[in-house]
Specification:
The complex is a heterodimer of chains A (557) and B (157).
Chain A lengths: L2 E3 H11 L4 E4 L6 H7 L5 E4 L3 H15 L3 E5 L3 H4 L2 H9 L4 E7 L15 H5 L5 E4 L6 H13 L5 E7 H5 L1 E3 L19 H13 L3 E5 L1 H6 L2 H11 L3 E3 L14 E4 L6 H9 L2 E5 L5 H4 L10 E6 L13 E4 L2 H11 L6 H13 L13 H12 L4 E4 L3 H9 L8 E2 L10 H11 L5 E6 L9 H7 L5 E6 L4 H10 L14 H8 L2 E5 L5 H10 L4 E6 L25
Parallel strand pairs in A: 2-3, 2-4, 4-5, 5-7, 6-7, 9-10, 9-12, 10-11, 12-13, 13-14, 15-16, 15-17, 17-18, 18-20, 19-20
Antiparallel strand pairs in A: 1-8
Chain B lengths: L1 E9 L4 H11 L3 E9 L5 E9 L3 H13 L3 E6 L5 E12 L5 H10 L3 E6 L2 E8 L1 H10 L4 E7 L3 E4 L1
Antiparallel strand pairs in B: 1-3, 1-4, 2-3, 5-7, 5-8, 5-9, 6-7
The chains are: A alpha/beta (557), B alpha+beta (157).
């Protein structure tokens, strides 16, 4: 059999895994790999910073459900991936990152551009490998893709020394993979499912609390079926947005720190929480001792460690969400929840999600609503982190899975723009917006060059309030308006966009918002819309950190 | 409360770092950790004595360990009958204790005097936690110059 070098084996293996797009940046320790990429039948997207490659691979994965792949060189190239890996890890995103490493015999010698990449990435990846032997390369890649994409997904790093990339070996790609120490539980325990069904059938005030697991598992239809059958209201986490149609009467939108008043009230008053693919994060539960005091809790999750980590669970079900829901749906009966739903409707009437109109001035919430209108809810919305993220979560109505892409767990500023690039490559048929803040967008602004050079038609809506808005909001509310280092002196975003070859639009009046969005969507290239918005607008409602989630400020008027 | 758990893990470089990293990252407390190859050379066995303030934390420790890809299985021995042993080597200043007296003392604890030279003696002892503590208490009159312990290993009955 003809022998191939390590770099060729790597590329061939990626092709065997069905990879069509790779994001990355070259360097000394991946030269053989880039040589193999030169004529490989793969789309390679050259980013301008490795962090952009990691986030783009992540955005691609979230938009498509496939494994995102990125490549970086050793040392600084690999360490630049770190934030992206941690982001993907916290949100359970399937990714494979391939890093170059110094030559095998130099490892540990503080060689040029050497970093202990497996050491550094160990706590922020699902798993990682250092491949020191060419004979293990192909099966390592097979394992990496398997681990990244199954069970609770996550990022996997493969560190490949440059000499291994050059060694020759026969290429045999394994068909199957069996890891004795890794056997995720997919089927829920039938007895537990029965118990859950019994609780559901007895409940008078059930609420479904759905997280990102619903989207990862592809269980939106099963979730809808459960909700309708049981007549249970559904609230989602930030990661769960799009997992349940928000235009459905049973939807309560998002819960938690910036959730709706009615979702939080419903959780606090419910007698049964059906948690599905969610992990009771502190931004969701608020003060844990006072969380849902009347409720029993059913928790369906593929990750056993997520269960009873933060709250005591009465009926745990470890398994794939879709798998479990299919079985659960067969056992539940039509719910008797009329009174409960009526009460919730009353909360909805009394405490709607709303904001004050500011006349001619643009409020950020209005801008987000207009993006929803213009895209008819059919776009993929990526966000940065902070106020922009919360407004994007609150004022766009998500009805389909994989349409809201945001760094939930790690809360990574600078995530949205490169993620949008990845998402657009994965879903070229979709309009892709990054809803950004003027602070966040500057954290990976260099990727504008990537989008232009690779002709990736993404739209960026900057909600420009001249502040690091969320921090400013906390300073206003909890630090006596001492705006310590949150006022930003910004570049002219229109000129900046133009200098890269993108279209830049500035919008200063409310009446011009709609037109600008239409123009951006129609434009054949990358667009930055600089929405000059109300400076000191706050995200409400809000649960102050450490409070019970029904003690909200704002939004109660 | 202390719990004696063991994990069977892939005998591979980096596995110990994964486990110790997990304990520090999640703020779990380890009292003792001992690792060695099993009769199957591809598998190592780790005996870990953890300090968990409640059942929930103990459950988390076990589940988080099991979640690591290289961990094959995790078991808690605490509620089962099990043997637990630790090997301790102790170098003492024996100038105040005759060889004979030292032998008499160590015999009581099934410990051995490995050497008695000049003013120093080296003692080897094997036992469970209480036996080792009792021996150390009995040696109290002597100055301990060095002490090294393997960490406890355990096996179910």
């Amino acid at each position: 059999m003809e022998k191939k070098n390590g770099a060729q084996i790597l590329i061939e293996s990626l092709l065997k895994e069905g990879v069509r797009v790779v994001f990355g940046f070259p360097g000394g320790s991946v030269l053989p790999l880039f040589d193999a990429l030169y004529d490989a039948p793969l789309d390679f997207v050259l980013v301008r910073h490795e962090q952009g490659a990691a986030h783009a691979a992540d955005g691609y994965a979230r938009a498509t459900g496939k494994v995102g792949v990125c490549i970086a060189t050793s040392g600084p190239g690999a360490t630049n991936l770190v934030t992206g890996l941690a982001t993907a890890h916290m949100d359970s995103i399937p990714m494979v990152a391939i890093t170059g490493q110094v030559k095998t015999f130099l490892i540990g010698n503080d060689a040029f551009q050497e970093a202990d990449v497996t050491g550094i990435t160990r706590p922020i990846t699902k798993h990682n490998y250092l491949v020191k032997d060419i004979s293990e390369l192909a099966c390592t890649i097979k394992e990496a893709f398997h681990i990244a994409s199954t069970g609770r997904p996550g990022p996997v790093v493969i560190d490949v020394p440059v000499d291994v990339q050059m060694q020759l070996a026969e290429f045999n790609y394994p068909h199957t993979v069996c890891i004795r120490s890794y056997q995720p539980t997919l089927e829920g325990h039938p007895g537990q499912i029965k118990k859950a069904a019994k609780l559901i059938n007895q409940s008078k005030r059930p609420i479904i609390y759905a997280g990102g697991g619903v989207i990862i598992s592809g269980a939106s239809e099963e979730l809808l079926e459960l909700a309708i059958k049981v007549q249970a209201p559904v609230t989602t986490t930030l990661m769960g947005l799009g997992g349940f149609p928000e235009d459905n009467d049973l939807s309560l939108g998002m819960l938690g720190m910036h959730g709706t008043v009615y979702a939080n009230h419903a959780v606090m008053e419910s007698d049964l929480i059906i948690a599905i693919g969610a992990r009771f994060d502190d931004r969701v539960t608020g003060k844990i001792d006072e969380f849902a005091p009347h409720a029993k809790i059913i928790h369906i999750d593929i990750d056993p460690t997520a269960i009873s980590k933060n709250v005591h669970v009465h009926v745990p079900i470890v398994g794939d969400v879709k798998n479990v829901l299919v079985k659960l749906n067969r056992l539940v009966k039509a719910g008797q929840t009329k009174e409960w739903l009526e009460r919730i409707r009353e909360w909805k009437r009394r405490y709607p999600l709303t904001y004050k109109d500011k006349g001619d001035k643009i409020t950020p919430q209005y801008a987000v609503e207009q993006i929803y209108k213009a895209t008819k809810g059919d776009a993929i919305i990526c966000t940065e982190v902070g106020q922009n993220q919360m407004w994007a979560a609150q004022y766009y109505t998500y009805t389909k899975p994989r349409t809201f892409i945001s760094s939930g767990g790690l809360g990574t500023m600078g995530y949205g723009f490169p993620a949008a690039i990845g998402a657009k490559i994965g879903r070229p048929d979709k309009v892709v917006f990054d809803i950004a803040g003027d602070g966040s967008i500057q954290m990976n602004i260099q990727e504008l060059a990537t989008a232009i050079a690779s002709k990736i038609n993404v739209k960026v809506a900057i909600l420009n309030n001249g502040y690091l808005g969320m921090v400013r909001q906390w300073q206003e509310l909890f630090y006596k308006k001492r705006y310590s280092h949150t006022k930003l002196l910004n570049p002219d975003f229109v000129k900046l966009a133009e200098s890269y070859g993108a279209l830049g639009l500035r919008v200063e009046k409310k009446q011009d918002v709609e037109k600008a969005i239409e123009e951006a969507i129609a434009a054949p290239n990358v667009v930055f819309i600089d929405f000059v918005v109300e400076e000191e607008e706050n995200v409400f409602p809000m649960v102050p950190a450490g409070e019970a989630i029904n003690r909200m400020i704002g939004g109660m008027a | 409360m202390k719990h004696t758990i063991f994990a069977l893990v892939e005998n591979r470089p980096g596995v110990l770092a994964r486990i110790s990293g997990l304990f520090s990252a999640r703020a779990f407390n380890i009292d003792s950790l001992a690792v060695g190859e099993t009769h199957d050379p591809t598998i190592s066995r780790m005996t870990i004595i953890v300090d968990a303030k409640d059942e929930r934390i103990l459950e988390q420790i076990k589940k988080q360990l099991h979640k690591l890809i290289d961990v094959i299985s995790v078991e808690d021995l605490t509620k089962k009958g099990f043997f637990e042993r630790e090997l301790v080597l102790i170098k003492v200043d024996s100038s105040s204790c005759s060889k004979q007296k030292l032998h008499k003392l160590t015999d009581k604890f099934s410990a051995k005097v490995l050497s008695y030279e000049g003013k120093k003696a080296v003692i080897e002892a094997v036992g469970d936690k209480d036996e080792i503590s009792a021996l150390l208490a009995a040696l109290g009159g002597m100055k301990i110059c060095e002490l090294v312990r393997t960490g406890r290993v355990a096996i179910a009955k």
